[in-house]
Amino acid sequence: MKKFLNNIRSAENPIPLNKQIINTVCILFIGIILGTFSKFLDTMPGNELPFIFEFLDVSNFLGRFAIWLLLALCISIYSNSSMRASINVFVFFVGMVTSYYLYSRFVAGFFPRSYAMIWAAFTVISPILAFICWYARGKSKLAFMLSAIILAVLFNTTFVYGNSYFEMRSILELIIFICAVAFLKRTTIKDTMIMFVLSVGIAFALDFVVPFHLG
What we know:
Blueprint: H1 2-8, H2 17-43, H3 51-56, H4 58-62, H5 66-77, H6 82-108, H7 113-134, H8 141-158, E1 159-161, E2 166-168, H9 171-183, H10 189-209
Antiparallel strand pairs: 1-2
Helix pairs in contact: 2-6, 5-6, 5-7, 5-9, 6-7, 8-9, 8-10
């Protein structure tokens, strides 16, 4: 099984244990900072925020999935192994989700239990998703398909569409999607375009099977 997975993506690159620990601790603190910052913006009146934050609706943007999916994708594909990807992404979400809801409970004075349970469940499954995502940067056909599926999910966090409408959630989600395409780009422009077109097809299929978006 290990040999098969290494054929999907080039061999894992070992790094010293102390550097692994430092990297993971840094990722944990980044998660804590971003979770706290996100909830801080969420509790601030819009007219007290800088104009650009209000204009781009940053607080609501941080409350949706797209930005967190992109950050998890980046952590996954740039980790030095699939196992490290699982650990790093899990630690990131533990830091982010914990700090967000601790701030909500003890600073903002309320605790939205239903939303907290959704994010807790996502945190629990995040190591599995990260493990899979790590292989998306490989050269095989399976890695190509994984990349297209990842982009399809992000496509459905960027656009809302139906029989007679097609709308972009916000310019920030569009930027997220473009960044994801750049991170997952293939070795040639042609292959990248094929991946993009395939991802759109998969996105429409996912929308038909699972008719709700990670908004």
